[in-house]
Write a structure and sequence with these properties.
4 domains; Heat Shock Protein 90; 21 helices; rod-shaped; Beta-Lactamase; alpha+beta; 5-stranded antiparallel β-sheet; 7-stranded antiparallel β-sheet; about 45% helix
Length: about 675
């Protein structure tokens, strides 16, 4: 044995080598071959003494060989440095080391300690945080998974949001040095299930054997897993951050603590992204509501003018019929003209519904009963290849609404579903009691938190594209062929629901079908409205009372005056409120018939002035639409008599007689 070898053996036996708390490696300078390792080094690295002596220091290190060599060449002054090393179990560790060259034995002495937990935290502070500090939103999340995968030396890093209690939608996914499309997956039988339902989890090795039913772990070739839940400001789970490696992870508690520290920032970013998305959605809903309101105001004005014209046409037709024998050929032509006008009248009725100016007879109703009645009518035109399924809650709360208009809503939705399923399919109607909370209201414009009755109408039809969904409630918008539909069906649905203080939302996927969800407020009183007796048919009997008729449209006024005078009434006519007030001061009047919309003042204001002159006077309002002076939020005031345009002379005479007789009975 030569002198150098004897000196080396002496070093191995000395306290400089056999330190109890520090790992020591003796390394040959030329090749970095490991000469000897002390007991503590064997414990940290997990190798046997003979196995280590067959290795070079390069074999232990995860850092590039040139960087490892530089440590030995430049850092021989015992200044500490840090290395990532791989243990015998393939687990990686971070060690703090110092190198001294012993000239007399021609060996490097490497002293090291396992500081994995401490150094991981340090790397987060010095690398991950500075590299992501200026980033926000999706850019931050993508940078987070990239940096986290690099720091933890794993192949995969993922962040996702919880969209259902058992389903996660990916937001950012780093896979083998590249960003990939984040997958969406169910939590059942995955390690993520425990993370969401309980707390952070670390499976440093053999994760596949712990979750044998998780096919994704197998596809990734995962050996290790670490995950933490992401929580919102109220502490509720809102997402997950996890990493997977094809090698074991360091089994140190600091690893999860580090993930939780960066997870807090990720949670804040996701919550902020959600708030921005919700704000954008609410902004779009507000713009849509404003657009619909503007169109509604225009539609109401059009309907008003159109109704005036129809009223004059109907009046002249009926007056002309009165001059003919019913067997006269021209009489039948006039009957056809009346049917045409009635079709046009139905069109304007839908316009007034959309403008929310159609009077409603509000009652306390059981929605399930209305659905059953509507379905009986639906069976007449629903094809045999459309199957109807109903799931109606037995304890459904009562609502307040107009039964006829709710029936119209259901009919329109059923028709829409039928047309969406030309080859047949399934029509599903469902009702439920629901409570809409503050979170839901924050994401939906005009929604007030509270108790609602939910109506869902779903089909398995062709579905709608997002661009179509944005416009389906607009008047005259339709995807049907020309001549099939007016484009007002869903417009009416939207308007009736809004008029009742409710909300409607549509969910649709092309090729999979459509669902309309309607939320109507729960009734304040839990008792059904009494069934009203059907009033006797009103006859157009003659009269001798004095009527003041105020109408600014000359043709409509002429027809109305002729119709009433022909039935024996004394009719005083006025085109303006000024003329009407003059006549009221000079004559005793039994009934005031006035249009709602007049120049200078409204019909209601005119009636209030005349009532001060003649307190006993009765009032009948007529209009092509109803302003809030007569209809408050679409509901007819008790005791107010109203006749919508267009009307025929017979209908006007019948309504006049009804008002006069009712007042007489009182």
């Amino acid at each position: 044995m030569d002198a150098i070898e004897r000196a080396r053996e002496a070093l191995v036996q000395s306290p400089f080598f056999n330190l109890p708390n520090m790992g020591v490696l003796l390394i040959a300078p030329e090749t970095l071959q490991i000469y000897r390792a002390n007991q503590r080094a064997l414990e940290i690295l997990g190798y046997g003494a003979e196995a280590l002596q067959q290795m070079t220091f390069y074999d232990l290190c995860l850092d590039p060989p040139e960087q490892v060599r530089r440590y030995f060449e430049e850092l021989q002054s015992e200044k500490p440095f840090h290395l990532d090393v791989r243990t015998a179990s393939s687990e990686w560790r971070i060690v703090e080391a110092a190198v001294t060259f012993f000239e007399e034995v021609r060996l490097f002495r490497l002293l090291f300690a396992d500081l994995t937990g401490v150094r991981l935290a340090w790397r987060v502070l010095t690398r991950l945080v500075p590299n992501t500090a200026r980033l926000t939103g999706e850019t931050y999340l993508k940078a987070l998974v990239r940096e986290l995968a690099a720091l933890l030396r794993v192949e995969y890093a993922y962040v996702g949001e919880l969209v259902e209690p058992d389903r996660v939608r990916g937001l950012a996914f780093w896979s083998k040095e590249n960003w990939q499309t984040p997958p969406e997956y169910r939590l059942e039988n995955t390690p993520c299930e425990g993370v969401i339902n309980r707390a952070a989890c670390l499976y440093a090795r053999s994760v596949q054997s712990l979750f044998p039913k998780d096919e994704d772990l197998k596809a990734l070739g995962a050996e290790s897993y670490a995950g933490i839940p992401l929580r919102d400001t109220r502490g509720r789970p809102m997402g997950i951050l996890w990493v997977c490696g094809m090698n074991p992870l360091p089994d140190v508690p600091e690893l999860l603590e580090i993930m939780e520290s960066v997870g807090a920032r990720a949670s804040s970013e996701i919550e902020r992204m959600r708030m921005e998305q919700e704000l954008q959605i609410v902004r779009e809903q507000l713009l849509q509501a404003q657009r619909m309101e503007s169109i509604g105001q225009m539609a109401g004005g059009v309907a008003h003018d159109f109704n005036n014209m129809l009223t004059a046409i109907l009046g002249y037709i009926e007056l002309a019929q009165g001059e003919l024998d019913p067997q006269h050929r021209a009489y039948q032509f006039l009957e056809s003209a009346i049917r045409g006008v009635e079709k046009a009248s139905e069109f304007t009725r839908q316009l007034t519904l959309f403008a929310r100016r159609q009077p409603m007879q509000i009652q306390t109703l059981q929605l399930n009963a209305i659905i059953q009645e509507a379905l009986q009518f639906t069976q007449r035109w629903l094809p045999a290849n459309v199957q109807v399924r109903t799931f109606l809650a037995e304890d459904l709360w009562l609502i307040e609404g107009d039964a006829s208009q709710l029936t119209q809503v259901l009919t329109n939705l059923f028709l829409n579903a039928r047309d969406a399923m030309p080859q047949g399919g399934v029509l599903t109607i469902e009702t439920q009691n629901v409570v809409l909370d503050q979170d839901y209201a924050r994401r939906h414009y005009e929604v007030v938190p509270g108790e609602y009755v939910m109506l869902s109408v779903s089909d398995t039809g062709i579905g709608m594209s997002p661009s179509v969904q944005k416009r389906i409630f607009e008047p005259f918008f339709t995807t049907k062929p020309q001549g099939q539909g007016t484009g007002l069906g869903l417009t009416v649905v939207y308007s009736v629901v809004k008029q009742l203080g409710g909300h409607i939302w549509v969910y649709s996927e092309e090729g999979r079908g459509t669902t309309f969800k309607i939320y109507l407020p729960r009734a304040a009183h839990e008792s059904l409205a009494p069934t009203l007796a059907v009033p006797p048919a009103i006859t157009t009997e003659r009269g001798s009372e004095t009527i003041l008729l105020v109408e600014d449209e000359a043709d409509v006024r002429t027809v109305a005056v002729e119709a009433l005078r022909a039935r024996g009434y004394t009719v005083l006519e006025a085109a303006t409120p000024t003329e009407a007030l003059q006549l009221a001061q000079e004559n005793k009047i039994d009934l005031l018939v006035t249009d709602v919309v007049l120049p200078v003042m409204s019909g209601r204001e005119l009636a209030e002035v005349i009532k001060r002159l003649q307190p006993q006077i009765r009032v009948l309002y007529v209009s092509g639409y109803t302003e809030n002076t007569i209809v408050h939020y679409g509901v007819v005031d008790a005791g107010v008599h109203f006749l919508p345009k267009p009307y025929t002379p017979s209908q006007l005479a019948a309504k006049v007689r009804q008002v006069l007789d009712e007042e007489r009975e009182e």
